Amino acid sequence: MLNKFKQKNELFILFLSGIFAGLSIYSIYLIPLLILGYFYFFERLEKTRTIKNAIFDGLIFGTGYFFGCLHWIIFPFLVYEKHFIIAPFIIIIFPLLMSIFYGVSATLIYLTKRVNPDLKFFKISLISLILFFSEWVRSFLFGGLPISLTAHIWSFQHQFISIASYVGVFGLSYLTIYWLVLIFNFYNKKGCFFFIVLIFPILLYFLPASNYDYQKNQERHLVRIIQPNIPQKEKWDRALYQKHFEKLLSLTKDRIPNKNVIVIWPEVALTVFLNEEKELLDYLKKVLPPNIILITGSLRREFNNSGYEVYNSFFILSNDRVQYYDKIKLVPFGEFIPFKNILDFLKVTPGSTDFASGLKENNIQIDFNSKSIFIEPSICFESIFQTFSYNKTNLFINITNDAWFGKTTGPSQHLAATVFRSIEKGIPLIRSANSGISVIVNKHGKILRSQRLNSTGYLESNIRLGDNKTFFMKVGNASVTFLILILILFGIIVDLIFKYRKKD
Q1: Segment holding 376, helix H or strand E
Q2: How far apart are the first and last CA of the chain?
Q3: DSSP character for 387?
Q4: 3-class DSSP state for residue 363?
Q5: Do 288 and 294 contact (CB within 8 A), yes or no?
Q6: What is the pTM of this model?
């Protein structure tokens, strides 16, 4: 009886360790929780005697981890009453399914026990690679979900993410995982332990970005980001459309400067098919000052032989010119339903029609201040995915609506993932979010301005453009492969050195 109670108690602690590790992902100040969570996980795997127990431990830790970092996934199912009954199943089933990644990782880590004990650093490299590969696979499998990556814990302190301009977000994830495994392996050697805990953050802090420069006199361009904070339940209410529209116009025109300015409204700020609204376009041209270039989210409809397609679109309105980009990566169960005949009841957003995926290149040129600016548009969670546009891009603009996730850590984690696009590309990031968090980020990943969650207002700043020419953009994720190979080689060399010293 006592033995069973002890086992259950240990499994509960393992589950809590996973929660701690998951909750820590969105803040650098919670790194101690990340270390403690993984420490207990590694300790369990060290003591595990069977592969069956290793799989089970991985599933328990993984369920806790994804419950901790992705608990906000339940909130879109709490917006409309028809989904209330589904919500409890989502909060249970989603972490359980995602925990399979940790179950597989734990199995492979268990098998590393067969590695020669003298090859300590090689084993560290192997365990780090297993955990990293799990993170990599879930970022691409079935469309991918590269959110709550280990690297995201550093997101909001730009000094710590400069290395992403060389190895990208995945390179930083691998290094952070390697660091966690090192900490566990040297916890009983106090001198080494404290050195390892401190040296990695110190190195990250002082490493300059690959596109660092001193061009302080470079021309600046004025941008204004609008955050209307329209509640999700009201957003699609036709009776409130005019009220929301007037709110957007008021924030746009409030103390607008005389100089040219790019104004950005959030995702589907205009809940109409904008390409069919000539009167609305004419009205916007009439009421907005001529020095404004307006970027807004809206819907676009295109008719064909079988009916029509609906797109979630990014519009740029400049004088008499209308340019657009249609969202390519769609949100499952929000913008389209996989296996629609079976799972149609899980659709979160209003309406029965699925959105169509865009085909147009995500690169738009505009003329601003007598210069050509090349914008990479991004809608909603597209910003969490790496993109490799080798055209000249100066500015990354993301429009989104995180009102679905309320006051949870969801909007913070979405932003944490998005910030890496600026440092990877070496271009500023402009983000307009309906309910927050809206930000202006420079090309080094530093947040210059931010509008807090669930608040109404606007941000304004003069920004310097970037050039999309970081080391990472030149070589892509091949840099991560080189990094992994270097650390494995380093581990083998260190192991051989220690082996020969023992012989002497």
Answers
A1: strand 371-379
A2: 52
A3: -
A4: coil
A5: yes
A6: 0.90
